[in-house]
Protein backbone atom coordinates (compact mmCIF):
# COMPACT_ATOMS: atom_id res chain seq x y z
CA UNK A 1 0.00 0.00 0.00
CA UNK A 2 2.78 2.42 0.98
CA UNK A 3 4.73 1.81 -2.24
CA UNK A 4 1.72 2.22 -4.52
CA UNK A 5 0.58 5.34 -2.71
CA UNK A 6 4.06 6.84 -2.83
CA UNK A 7 4.35 6.16 -6.54
CA UNK A 8 1.05 7.93 -7.18
CA UNK A 9 1.94 10.85 -4.90
CA UNK A 10 5.34 11.35 -6.47
CA UNK A 11 3.85 11.51 -9.94
CA UNK A 12 1.22 13.99 -8.87
CA UNK A 13 3.82 16.00 -6.97
CA UNK A 14 5.72 16.43 -10.19
CA UNK A 15 2.61 17.63 -11.98
CA UNK A 16 1.80 20.30 -9.43
CA UNK A 17 5.15 21.99 -10.00
CA UNK A 18 5.24 24.85 -12.48
CA UNK A 19 6.47 24.04 -15.95
CA UNK A 20 8.59 27.14 -15.60
CA UNK A 21 11.44 27.58 -13.17
CA UNK A 22 10.73 28.22 -9.53
CA UNK A 23 11.10 31.74 -8.26
CA UNK A 24 14.70 32.79 -8.17
CA UNK A 25 16.64 35.32 -6.11
CA UNK A 26 15.04 38.66 -5.30
CA UNK A 27 17.21 40.63 -7.73
CA UNK A 28 16.68 38.22 -10.63
CA UNK A 29 13.99 40.36 -12.31
CA UNK A 30 16.23 43.43 -12.25
CA UNK A 31 19.20 41.51 -13.65
CA UNK A 32 17.09 40.20 -16.55
CA UNK A 33 15.49 43.60 -17.19
CA UNK A 34 18.86 45.36 -17.32
CA UNK A 35 20.27 42.68 -19.61
CA UNK A 36 17.35 43.00 -22.05
CA UNK A 37 18.10 46.71 -22.51
CA UNK A 38 21.63 45.84 -23.65
CA UNK A 39 20.56 43.49 -26.45
CA UNK A 40 18.10 45.96 -27.98
CA UNK A 41 14.60 44.75 -27.04
CA UNK A 42 12.78 42.60 -24.47
CA UNK A 43 13.30 38.94 -25.29
CA UNK A 44 9.69 38.25 -24.31
CA UNK A 45 8.83 39.35 -27.87
CA UNK A 46 11.37 36.99 -29.40
CA UNK A 47 8.99 34.25 -30.50
CA UNK A 48 5.97 36.52 -30.92
CA UNK A 49 5.80 35.95 -34.70
CA UNK A 50 5.27 32.24 -34.16
CA UNK A 51 3.01 32.55 -31.12
CA UNK A 52 0.66 34.95 -32.96
CA UNK A 53 0.40 32.81 -36.09
CA UNK A 54 -3.01 31.63 -37.30
CA UNK A 55 -2.18 28.03 -36.42
CA UNK A 56 -1.45 28.77 -32.76
CA UNK A 57 -4.38 31.18 -32.55
CA UNK A 58 -6.60 28.20 -33.38
CA UNK A 59 -4.80 26.14 -30.73
CA UNK A 60 -5.45 28.89 -28.18
CA UNK A 61 -9.18 28.70 -28.93
CA UNK A 62 -9.14 24.96 -28.23
CA UNK A 63 -7.13 25.39 -25.02
CA UNK A 64 -10.06 27.41 -23.62
CA UNK A 65 -11.99 24.13 -23.45
CA UNK A 66 -9.57 22.98 -20.74
CA UNK A 67 -10.66 25.75 -18.34
CA UNK A 68 -11.69 24.24 -15.03
CA UNK A 69 -9.44 21.19 -15.39
CA UNK A 70 -6.01 20.56 -13.86
CA UNK A 71 -4.28 19.97 -17.21
CA UNK A 72 -0.68 21.35 -17.12
CA UNK A 73 -1.10 22.89 -20.59
CA UNK A 74 -3.13 25.66 -18.94
CA UNK A 75 -0.15 26.58 -16.73
CA UNK A 76 2.08 26.65 -19.80
CA UNK A 77 -0.33 28.93 -21.65
CA UNK A 78 -0.57 31.29 -18.67
CA UNK A 79 3.22 31.41 -18.57
CA UNK A 80 3.32 32.80 -22.13
CA UNK A 81 0.96 35.62 -21.19
CA UNK A 82 2.36 36.45 -17.75
CA UNK A 83 5.76 35.17 -16.67
CA UNK A 84 6.32 37.09 -13.45
CA UNK A 85 9.56 35.28 -12.72
CA UNK A 86 11.32 36.31 -15.95
CA UNK A 87 12.57 32.80 -16.66
CA UNK A 88 10.73 31.98 -19.88
CA UNK A 89 13.14 33.72 -22.28
CA UNK A 90 16.37 33.33 -20.31
CA UNK A 91 18.05 31.09 -22.88
CA UNK A 92 17.54 33.45 -25.80
CA UNK A 93 18.70 36.39 -23.69
CA UNK A 94 21.96 34.64 -22.79
CA UNK A 95 22.61 33.77 -26.45
CA UNK A 96 22.14 37.43 -27.43
CA UNK A 97 24.33 38.71 -24.60
CA UNK A 98 27.13 36.29 -25.46
CA UNK A 99 26.88 37.28 -29.12
CA UNK A 100 27.23 40.95 -28.19
CA UNK A 101 29.99 40.29 -25.66
CA UNK A 102 32.10 38.37 -28.18
CA UNK A 103 31.52 40.91 -30.97
CA UNK A 104 32.64 40.32 -34.56
CA UNK A 105 35.37 37.80 -35.26
CA UNK A 106 38.76 38.94 -36.55
CA UNK A 107 38.25 36.65 -39.53
CA UNK A 108 34.83 38.13 -40.38
CA UNK A 109 34.70 40.49 -43.35
CA UNK A 110 33.91 44.19 -42.91
CA UNK A 111 30.84 43.67 -45.11
CA UNK A 112 29.54 41.05 -42.68
CA UNK A 113 30.14 43.38 -39.73
CA UNK A 114 27.92 46.01 -41.35
CA UNK A 115 24.94 43.69 -40.92
CA UNK A 116 25.21 43.86 -37.13
CA UNK A 117 22.42 45.56 -35.17
CA UNK A 118 23.33 46.60 -31.62
CA UNK A 119 26.48 44.51 -31.97
CA UNK A 120 24.59 41.30 -32.85
CA UNK A 121 24.30 39.58 -36.23
CA UNK A 122 20.78 38.88 -37.57
CA UNK A 123 21.64 35.17 -37.71
CA UNK A 124 22.47 35.23 -34.00
CA UNK A 125 19.12 36.86 -33.21
CA UNK A 126 17.42 34.17 -35.28
CA UNK A 127 19.35 31.53 -33.35
CA UNK A 128 18.15 33.02 -30.05
CA UNK A 129 14.57 32.79 -31.28
CA UNK A 130 15.09 29.20 -32.44
CA UNK A 131 16.50 28.29 -29.03
CA UNK A 132 13.41 29.69 -27.33
CA UNK A 133 11.05 27.92 -29.72
CA UNK A 134 12.74 24.57 -29.02
CA UNK A 135 12.65 25.19 -25.27
CA UNK A 136 8.98 26.20 -25.41
CA UNK A 137 8.08 23.16 -27.55
CA UNK A 138 9.56 20.83 -24.95
CA UNK A 139 7.82 22.72 -22.14
CA UNK A 140 4.52 22.10 -23.90
CA UNK A 141 5.35 18.43 -24.46
CA UNK A 142 6.27 18.03 -20.77
CA UNK A 143 2.69 19.03 -19.99
CA UNK A 144 1.31 15.76 -21.35
CA UNK A 145 -0.56 14.00 -18.54
CA UNK A 146 -0.18 10.32 -17.69
CA UNK A 147 -3.84 9.32 -17.91
CA UNK A 148 -3.18 6.24 -15.75
CA UNK A 149 -2.88 8.68 -12.83
CA UNK A 150 -6.09 10.54 -13.73
CA UNK A 151 -8.53 11.27 -10.90
CA UNK A 152 -11.96 12.91 -10.90
CA UNK A 153 -10.48 16.08 -9.33
CA UNK A 154 -8.38 16.63 -12.45
CA UNK A 155 -11.47 17.20 -14.57
CA UNK A 156 -13.41 15.11 -17.13
CA UNK A 157 -11.30 12.35 -18.69
CA UNK A 158 -12.25 13.39 -22.24
CA UNK A 159 -10.97 16.92 -21.55
CA UNK A 160 -7.67 15.59 -20.26
CA UNK A 161 -7.32 13.40 -23.37
CA UNK A 162 -8.11 16.43 -25.53
CA UNK A 163 -5.50 18.48 -23.65
CA UNK A 164 -2.88 15.82 -24.37
CA UNK A 165 -3.66 15.95 -28.08
CA UNK A 166 -3.36 19.74 -28.13
CA UNK A 167 -0.07 19.58 -26.20
CA UNK A 168 1.40 17.12 -28.70
CA UNK A 169 0.27 19.05 -31.78
CA UNK A 170 1.21 22.54 -30.54
CA UNK A 171 4.61 21.33 -29.29
CA UNK A 172 5.28 19.67 -32.65
CA UNK A 173 4.25 22.87 -34.46
CA UNK A 174 6.74 24.97 -32.47
CA UNK A 175 9.47 22.42 -33.01
CA UNK A 176 8.79 22.31 -36.77
CA UNK A 177 9.07 26.11 -36.95
CA UNK A 178 12.35 25.97 -35.06
CA UNK A 179 13.75 23.37 -37.46
CA UNK A 180 12.70 25.46 -40.46
CA UNK A 181 14.47 28.50 -39.01
CA UNK A 182 17.52 26.38 -38.24
CA UNK A 183 17.80 25.27 -41.87
CA UNK A 184 17.54 28.90 -43.03
CA UNK A 185 20.74 29.75 -41.10
CA UNK A 186 22.66 27.85 -43.81
CA UNK A 187 25.33 26.62 -41.42
CA UNK A 188 25.77 22.85 -41.21
CA UNK A 189 27.77 22.95 -37.97
CA UNK A 190 25.07 24.99 -36.25
CA UNK A 191 22.41 22.59 -37.53
CA UNK A 192 24.47 19.70 -36.15
CA UNK A 193 24.91 21.39 -32.75
CA UNK A 194 21.25 22.29 -32.25
CA UNK A 195 20.04 18.94 -33.60
CA UNK A 196 22.24 17.15 -31.06
CA UNK A 197 20.81 19.42 -28.33
CA UNK A 198 17.28 18.32 -29.30
CA UNK A 199 18.46 14.71 -29.04
CA UNK A 200 19.92 15.47 -25.61
CA UNK A 201 16.60 16.95 -24.47
CA UNK A 202 14.70 13.85 -25.54
CA UNK A 203 17.21 11.60 -23.77
CA UNK A 204 17.10 13.75 -20.63
CA UNK A 205 13.31 13.69 -20.44
CA UNK A 206 13.37 9.91 -20.89
CA UNK A 207 15.74 9.62 -17.92
CA UNK A 208 13.47 11.88 -15.86
CA UNK A 209 10.48 9.66 -16.59
CA UNK A 210 12.35 6.45 -15.81
CA UNK A 211 13.67 7.90 -12.53
CA UNK A 212 10.15 8.79 -11.39
CA UNK A 213 9.26 5.17 -10.67
CA UNK A 214 8.44 3.57 -7.34
CA UNK A 215 11.73 1.65 -7.31
CA UNK A 216 13.88 4.75 -7.83
CA UNK A 217 11.90 6.80 -5.30
CA UNK A 218 12.35 4.19 -2.60
CA UNK A 219 16.07 3.66 -3.27
CA UNK A 220 19.07 5.89 -3.71
CA UNK A 221 19.79 4.66 -7.23
CA UNK A 222 20.61 8.11 -8.66
CA UNK A 223 23.72 9.74 -7.21
CA UNK A 224 24.73 13.37 -7.75
CA UNK A 225 27.15 12.55 -10.57
CA UNK A 226 24.30 10.88 -12.46
CA UNK A 227 21.97 13.74 -11.51
CA UNK A 228 24.35 16.29 -13.06
CA UNK A 229 24.70 14.26 -16.26
CA UNK A 230 20.95 13.85 -16.66
CA UNK A 231 20.19 17.45 -15.68
CA UNK A 232 22.66 18.70 -18.26
CA UNK A 233 20.81 16.74 -20.94
CA UNK A 234 17.40 18.09 -19.85
CA UNK A 235 18.29 21.67 -18.90
CA UNK A 236 21.83 22.51 -19.99
CA UNK A 237 22.57 21.05 -23.41
CA UNK A 238 20.29 23.41 -25.35
CA UNK A 239 21.73 26.57 -23.81
CA UNK A 240 25.36 25.37 -23.91
CA UNK A 241 25.19 24.32 -27.55
CA UNK A 242 23.24 27.44 -28.55
CA UNK A 243 25.97 29.59 -27.01
CA UNK A 244 28.58 27.65 -28.95
CA UNK A 245 26.50 27.94 -32.13
CA UNK A 246 26.28 31.74 -31.68
CA UNK A 247 30.09 31.89 -31.76
CA UNK A 248 30.17 29.68 -34.85
CA UNK A 249 27.75 32.01 -36.69
CA UNK A 250 30.13 34.93 -36.06
CA UNK A 251 33.10 32.79 -37.21
CA UNK A 252 34.86 32.84 -33.83
CA UNK A 253 37.65 30.34 -33.15
CA UNK A 254 37.27 27.03 -31.32
CA UNK A 255 38.51 28.46 -28.01
CA UNK A 256 35.77 31.12 -27.99
CA UNK A 257 33.23 28.43 -28.83
CA UNK A 258 34.52 26.25 -25.99
CA UNK A 259 34.24 29.10 -23.47
CA UNK A 260 30.74 30.00 -24.64
CA UNK A 261 29.71 26.35 -24.28
CA UNK A 262 31.25 26.24 -20.82
CA UNK A 263 29.38 29.38 -19.74
CA UNK A 264 26.04 28.02 -20.98
CA UNK A 265 26.60 24.64 -19.35
CA UNK A 266 27.51 25.91 -15.89
CA UNK A 267 24.92 28.70 -15.92
CA UNK A 268 22.08 26.29 -16.71
CA UNK A 269 23.20 23.77 -14.07
CA UNK A 270 23.52 26.56 -11.50
CA UNK A 271 20.09 27.89 -12.44
CA UNK A 272 18.51 24.43 -12.03
CA UNK A 273 20.18 23.99 -8.63
CA UNK A 274 18.91 27.40 -7.55
CA UNK A 275 15.40 26.42 -8.67
CA UNK A 276 15.58 23.09 -6.83
CA UNK A 277 16.75 24.81 -3.65
CA UNK A 278 13.91 27.34 -3.45
CA UNK A 279 11.48 25.20 -1.34
CA UNK A 280 14.32 24.46 1.10
CA UNK A 281 15.70 27.98 1.56
CA UNK A 282 12.71 30.33 1.32
CA UNK A 283 10.79 31.15 4.47
CA UNK A 284 7.16 31.17 3.43
CA UNK A 285 4.81 29.49 5.88
CA UNK A 286 1.73 30.54 3.88
CA UNK A 287 2.35 28.64 0.63
CA UNK A 288 1.95 24.84 0.74
CA UNK A 289 5.26 23.01 0.55
CA UNK A 290 5.88 20.88 -2.54
CA UNK A 291 9.06 19.64 -4.15
CA UNK A 292 10.32 16.97 -6.50
CA UNK A 293 12.07 13.84 -5.26
CA UNK A 294 14.55 14.49 -8.09
CA UNK A 295 15.52 17.90 -6.64
CA UNK A 296 19.24 18.22 -5.93
CA UNK A 297 18.92 18.62 -2.12
CA UNK A 298 16.82 15.43 -1.97
CA UNK A 299 19.32 13.49 -4.10
CA UNK A 300 22.17 14.68 -1.88
CA UNK A 301 20.13 13.77 1.21
CA UNK A 302 19.42 10.27 -0.06
CA UNK A 303 23.13 9.73 -0.66
CA UNK A 304 24.00 10.94 2.83
CA UNK A 305 21.42 9.01 4.88
CA UNK A 306 21.32 5.80 2.83
CA UNK A 307 18.49 3.69 1.45
CA UNK A 308 17.05 2.31 4.67
CA UNK A 309 16.83 5.61 6.52
CA UNK A 310 15.36 7.31 3.44
CA UNK A 311 12.64 4.66 3.29
CA UNK A 312 11.92 5.16 6.99
CA UNK A 313 11.64 8.93 6.56
CA UNK A 314 9.18 8.46 3.70
CA UNK A 315 7.05 6.12 5.83
CA UNK A 316 7.16 8.53 8.79
CA UNK A 317 6.05 11.37 6.51
CA UNK A 318 3.05 9.44 5.19
CA UNK A 319 -0.22 10.15 7.01
CA UNK A 320 -2.91 7.64 8.00
CA UNK A 321 -4.81 8.65 4.85
CA UNK A 322 -1.81 7.61 2.74
CA UNK A 323 -0.98 11.22 1.87
CA UNK A 324 2.56 12.49 1.92
CA UNK A 325 3.31 15.23 4.46
CA UNK A 326 5.77 17.34 2.44
CA UNK A 327 6.44 19.68 5.37
CA UNK A 328 7.61 16.81 7.55
CA UNK A 329 9.78 15.36 4.78
CA UNK A 330 11.19 18.83 4.09
CA UNK A 331 12.26 19.12 7.75
CA UNK A 332 13.96 15.71 7.50
CA UNK A 333 15.92 16.78 4.42
CA UNK A 334 16.90 20.09 6.02
CA UNK A 335 18.16 18.30 9.14
CA UNK A 336 21.09 16.84 7.19
CA UNK A 337 23.70 18.37 4.85
CA UNK A 338 21.81 17.83 1.60
CA UNK A 339 20.72 21.46 1.33
CA UNK A 340 24.14 22.93 2.15
CA UNK A 341 25.78 20.52 -0.33
CA UNK A 342 23.38 21.66 -3.07
CA UNK A 343 24.12 25.32 -2.23
CA UNK A 344 27.86 24.64 -2.50
CA UNK A 345 27.38 22.94 -5.87
CA UNK A 346 25.25 25.86 -7.11
CA UNK A 347 28.00 28.32 -6.14
CA UNK A 348 30.58 26.10 -7.86
CA UNK A 349 28.69 26.22 -11.17
CA UNK A 350 28.09 29.95 -10.83
CA UNK A 351 31.81 30.55 -10.30
CA UNK A 352 32.68 28.32 -13.27
CA UNK A 353 30.35 30.36 -15.48
CA UNK A 354 32.00 33.58 -14.25
CA UNK A 355 35.40 32.09 -14.96
CA UNK A 356 34.45 31.23 -18.55
CA UNK A 357 33.17 34.72 -19.38
CA UNK A 358 36.34 36.50 -18.24
CA UNK A 359 38.09 35.72 -21.53
CA UNK A 360 35.68 37.98 -23.44
CA UNK A 361 36.38 41.74 -23.75
CA UNK A 362 35.08 43.96 -20.96
CA UNK A 363 31.70 45.42 -21.96
CA UNK A 364 28.13 46.04 -20.84
CA UNK A 365 27.12 42.67 -22.25
CA UNK A 366 29.85 40.83 -20.34
CA UNK A 367 28.87 42.64 -17.14
CA UNK A 368 25.26 41.53 -17.67
CA UNK A 369 26.40 37.93 -18.13
CA UNK A 370 28.44 38.21 -14.93
CA UNK A 371 25.41 39.59 -13.08
CA UNK A 372 23.27 36.67 -14.28
CA UNK A 373 25.90 34.14 -13.18
CA UNK A 374 26.16 35.86 -9.79
CA UNK A 375 22.36 36.05 -9.36
CA UNK A 376 21.93 32.26 -9.50
CA UNK A 377 24.20 31.85 -6.46
CA UNK A 378 22.07 34.14 -4.26
CA UNK A 379 19.09 32.86 -2.27
Task: Write a brief structural summary.
With 379 residues, the chain is mainly alpha-helical. Helices cover 69% and strands 0% of the residues.
How would you sum up this structure, described in words?
- With 379 residues, the chain is mainly alpha-helical.
- The protein is 69% helix and 0% strand.
- The longest helix is centred in the middle third of the chain and has 28 residues, at 157-184.
- Mean pLDDT is 78; it is low at 1-5, 7-25, 44-48 and 81-88.
Give the radius of gyration.
21 Å
- How much strand content do the residues show? under 5%
Number of helices: 18
The average pLDDT is 78
**By helix and strand content, what is the structural category?**
mainly alpha
Given as residue ranges, the uncertain stretches (5+ residues, pLDDT < 50) are: 1-5, 7-25, 44-48, 81-88
How far is the first residue's CA from the last residue's CA?
A: 38 Å
Q: Could you state the order of secondary-structure elements as H and E? A: HHHHHHHHHHHHHHHHHH
The major β-sheet equals: none
What's the overall geometry? globular
> How many strands appear in the DSSP assignment?
0
Helix content: 55-70%
Amino acid sequence: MFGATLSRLSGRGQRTLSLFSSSGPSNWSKVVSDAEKIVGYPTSFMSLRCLLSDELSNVAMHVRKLAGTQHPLLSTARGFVYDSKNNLQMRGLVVLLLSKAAGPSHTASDLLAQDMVSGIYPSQRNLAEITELIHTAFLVHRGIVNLKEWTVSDGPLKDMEFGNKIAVLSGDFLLANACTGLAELNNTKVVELISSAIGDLVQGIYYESSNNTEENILTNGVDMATWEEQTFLSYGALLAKSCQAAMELAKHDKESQRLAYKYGKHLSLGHKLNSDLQPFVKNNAVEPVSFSFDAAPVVFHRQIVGQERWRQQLQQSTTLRNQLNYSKLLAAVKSEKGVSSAVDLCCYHGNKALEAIQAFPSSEARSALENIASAITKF
